Amino acid sequence: MPPKQPPQRGPTPQVAYGYVPHAPGAHPVHGQALQGVVWMPAPIPPPNCPPGLEYLSQIDQMIIQQKIELVEIIIGFETSNRYEVKNAWGQRIYFAAEDTDCCTRLCCGMDRPFTIKIMDNVGQEVIELQRPLRCSSCCFPCCLQELEVHAPPGTPVGYIKQTWDPCLPKFTIQNELHQDVLKITGPCIACSFCEDVHFEVLSLDEQTAVGRISKHWTGIVKELFTDTDNFGIQFPLDLDVKIKAVMLGAAFLVDFMFFEAGGGGGQRMGVWG
């Protein structure tokens, strides 16, 4: 009798998203590049910190860089978005990948529901963002945008909820108990042509600036011929790491609402759609 062949295994979820984690024992150290990528060294986790969020305790800003998808450039076919999340020194903190099917992307466009899986340097999923199908227009205040942030997956740590306003894009950041923590206010016209677009993170009374989410202008070629967006997030160094993770989720929600190309190839300019 011939020897029994071992079962064939498909690619891991991380590989399927286009991400290849580091091999065990090959964790990067400070300043060391592995496969062309320099990872942020893992700090000592603070008390009561969800696993994977210890990186956020050491930084006061993040940079989100969307990966260029050649398929989208060549044939205009909408693919799942992928991102790198880096610190101010260019060290990668996380890799993020959108998990949606082709039909949802084509039919719903920038309004599509999604799950974004955010992984650390060994491919461990540490944050999960869940966006249900909602309306983005202020004409329908009963069905506005929201996003749920889990860290780790299955454990909610906060929420972003769009607040109705006839002119400005506004959001409320909530903690895991659905208690309001911060406010976000964007410009009346969210147009990124030739300049950055800023969404201010404010105290609950909207009188004190706490941080900022900025969509960066990347140049005429990238803006016109690709669907890639770069974002910067600023927040206090001593802000709760869970709220920092929620602000990261808010940046993704803002990207999809206003800067992701819609079904007709255009972007949404404001709350009126």
TrEMBL record:
Subcellular location: Membrane
InterPro entries assigned: Scramblase
Claim: Coiled coil is one of the keywords in the record: no
GO molecular function: phospholipid scramblase activity
Cellular component per GO, a single term: plasma membrane
Membrane topology, from the record: Single-pass type II membrane protein
UniProtKB keywords: Calcium, Lipoprotein, Membrane, Palmitate, Phosphoprotein, Transmembrane, Transmembrane helix
Cofactors: Ca(2+)
Primary residence: membrane
Function (record text): May mediate accelerated ATP-independent bidirectional transbilayer migration of phospholipids upon binding calcium ions that results in a loss of phospholipid asymmetry in the plasma membrane.
Family in the record: Belongs to the phospholipid scramblase family.
Protein name as catalogued: Phospholipid scramblase
Lineage, opening ranks: Eukaryota, Metazoa, Chordata, Craniata, Vertebrata
